[in-house]
Specification:
About 50% of the residues lie in helices and about 10% in strands. The protein is of the alpha/beta class. It has a 5-stranded parallel beta sheet. The protein has a 4-stranded mixed beta sheet with strand order 3-2-1-6. Strands 12-15-13 form a 3-stranded antiparallel beta sheet. The longest helix has 25 residues, at about 395-420.
Length: about 675
């Protein structure tokens, strides 16, 4: 057996001895494989997890080298060309053989199940032993190396939800065996980290009361009530309200009594209900949290929360989140999912760098739905989609009938599953979805209003044309639109301060925002180059931090998609300044004004420039960084020549000039 420890930084033991797992990407690959032990991991999932949305041309070769290295490390005694026993190749990717590996995740789940079984049969001492044994397996964040990957985030979130419930169960068992002071210490730390956990609040209040601290017990309940009201606009659950009344009247039922062993004996004086394992969002804890600090977006989160609340009571909703690249659509959806502790979040994403099979995002959704609703039978038509058996017949009429049958089955399966528990479907990067996936969303939207489904999709604003037909169908279903813009000055300052671990001046924050337009991706990359406060303060002079390479690549990539003529027009405009007159730039670029106006409309749609509402014919760069990248991409001599052409064009009389006041 090869032993894997994934409840913290990845470790592997072969014959009881630790194994060197190699370079970071090689470790990430193994962590991804372990997270799906026994299941093949497709090539596109591995590439996206290791290299993000834009893997290099050599990615597949590097991946194969990582696999070869891992095989040597995990099977050191295997003879050359002998069949592998641990890491296999299949027609659907690579997989770890479940029969020859032991993963701590499974041992933790076994301990958690045994703990709750002991609790339910009235044996708190045995429950405490099982819970503590399970918690001893944790050394950090589950699947540390890949926990932020969309392909692992749901599993990591489920494990985190189970871990939190086991901590609460352990504390409930401590109370049941009379260890009140120990429970207080554990629960105070737990509630500080997770202040909205109502069951933890109930346990802490009871523990304080039994420890002779009635005032503190009431303070905990009232703080929780105030926080729930201010942050979520809800009241505490009835059990907390009842506990407050019982504490005020010193109810004898709250006093601790030893629990006799015996079947069916619940822990006397403890909360009557076993806490449910709640699936939260893709977790973001640990060392990476500074770089991924989440700030702002209160209005967007309110829209999401309101739609979620409406769906929970049977008024399903479809909500779209749009914005330019890097504006924080994925971060917002992850944050929303983190807060959606009362419902499963079925997460899917459409990769940008590889072609995907038909209905790929919905296959991800259906796969996750199956793990949350294991007792709900999967219709044959849904199973066909899950297994990739959706090849269309040659006859168009038969193909249409097959598609409709599958769509109806999927809609019925998802809406039916939501009747048992509210569900949130989140699909990121939906502008990359295949046509069938777009049509399925439109089909689902017709039925979602009578369900407990919340469907949230994100897309890039400059790719909205790909969703035109779908958007029309969604509008008829009373879709809610959330358009994200840049962070404001205060949010920019909060983000910079969190990343730099010090308070950033308002002037520095203004300069950062002016250069980036508040785009979170641009901001994060620019903030990374600020090594100390002194260097940050110089951003107000000509000594600006250079444009980070990732930002440069993204900007040039967006410009390249517009074509060479648009790229030339923008390059000339960058020399002219952050604001420019289109007739001057067109003249300096030797482009006819009618053609320039057509091109500039395309550039505005792409979000790279905006039209000046006060001066007719004038435009401005949305982000100063875009102009900086274009300017720096020119050689010095070309800049001088372009500047001369701009000056000559500005001085040259032009009959019927279009620029001037909007009046």
């Amino acid at each position: 057996m090869v032993e894997f420890r994934t409840l913290g930084p990845l470790e592997a033991l072969v014959a009881g001895r630790p194994v060197d797992l190699g370079a970071p990407k090689q470790r990430k690959l193994l962590a991804l494989l372990v997270s799906r032990v026994g299941q093949p991991v497709p090539l596109d999932v591995m590439l996206e997890t290791l290299w993000g949305e834009c893997p290099p041309p050599s990615a597949v070769t590097s991946l194969q080298a990582y696999v070869a290295n891992l095989r040597r490390a995990l099977e050191p005694g295997r003879a050359p060309r002998a069949p592998t026993k641990v890491l296999h190749t299949s027609d659907r990717g690579y997989l770890l053989d479940v029969h020859v590996v032991d993963v701590d995740v499974q041992r933790f789940k076994t301990r958690a199940k045994a703990g709750w079984e002991a609790w339910n049969r009235g044996d708190p001492q045995e429950a405490l032993s099982e819970f503590e044994a399970g918690m001893a397996l944790w050394r950090g964040e589950a699947y540390t190396e890949v926990c932020q990957s969309v392909h692992v985030a749901a599993d990591a979130a489920r494990l985190e939800g189970l871990r939190l419930s086991v901590v609460e169960g352990c504390c409930a068992a401590l109370l049941a065996v009379g260890a009140h002071e120990v429970a207080v210490a554990e629960l105070e730390a737990f509630m500080q980290a997770h202040p909205l956990r109502e069951y933890g609040c109930e346990l802490l209040s009871l523990a304080l009361y039994r420890a002779g601290r009635q005032a503190d017990a009431l303070a905990v309940l009232r703080t929780n009530q105030r926080r729930l009201g201010e942050e979520l606009g809800i009241d505490p659950r009835p059990a907390l309200q009842h506990l407050e009344r019982e504490i005020l009247r010193h109810a004898p039922a709250l006093d601790w009594r030893p629990v006799p062993a015996g079947p069916g004996m619940a822990a006397s004086g403890g909360p009557e209900a076993t806490p449910q394992v709640r699936v939260s969002a893709p977790a973001r804890t640990g060392p990476a949290s500074d770089a991924e600090a989440f700030v702002g977006r209160e209005a967007a989160l309110r829209h999401l929360t309101a739609a979620s609340a409406a769906a929970a009571v049977g008024r399903g909703r479809v909500l779209t989140v749009s914005g330019e690249p890097g504006i924080g659509k994925t971060s917002l959806l992850r944050r929303f999912a983190e807060l959606a502790e009362d419902r499963p979040v079925l997460w899917a994403a459409c990769p940008e760098h590889v072609a995907t099979p038909p209905l790929w995002p919905w296959r991800q959704v259906l796969s996750v739905a199956g793990t949350h609703c294991p007792r709900r039978p999967v219709p044959d038509a849904v199973a066909e989609v899950l297994n990739g058996e959706n090849r269309q017949p040659l006859d168009d009429a038969v193909a249409d009938a097959t598609t409709l049958r599958q769509f109806d089955a999927i809609v019925h399966y998802l809406t039916g599953a939501s009747q048992a528990t509210p569900l949130a479907i989140v699909i990121d990067q939906f502008h990359q979805a295949d046509p069938g996936s777009l049509r399925l969303l439109a089909h689902l939207a017709e039925s979602v209003q009578a369900s407990r489904l919340l469907v949230v999709v994100s897309y890039r604003s400059d790719k909205a044309a790909a969703l035109a037909e779908t958007s029309a169908a969604l509008a008829r279903a009373e879709m809610t639109r959330v358009e994200l813009s840049g962070l404001n000055a205060a949010e920019t300052r909060a983000l910079a301060s969190a990343m730099l671990h010090r308070e950033v001046s308002g002037a520095t924050a203004d300069d950062l925002r002016n250069r980036t337009g508040g785009n979170p991706f641009y901001l994060r990359e620019l903030i990374k180059v600020l090594e100390n406060e002194e260097r940050a303060s110089r951003t107000r002079t000509t000594s600006l931090p250079p444009v980070p390479a990732p930002v440069r690549e993204v900007v040039l990539g967006r410009i390249t998609q517009l074509g060479p003529t648009a790229a030339e027009l923008l390059s000339v405009a960058a020399v002219a300044g952050l604001s420019f007159a289109i007739d001057v730039v067109a003249d300096a670029s030797a482009i006819e004004i009618e053609e320039a106006l057509r091109i500039v409309d395309t550039i505005v749609t792409a979000g790279l420039i905006g039209e000046d509402q006060q001066r007719l014919g004038w435009y401005s760069f949305t982000h100063a960084l875009t102009a900086e990248v274009l300017f720096q991409n020119m050689g010095r001599l070309r800049r001088v020549l372009v500047l001369r052409r701009i000056r000559a064009a500005a001085l040259r009389p032009r009959k019927g000039s279009i620029t001037g006041s909007a009046e």
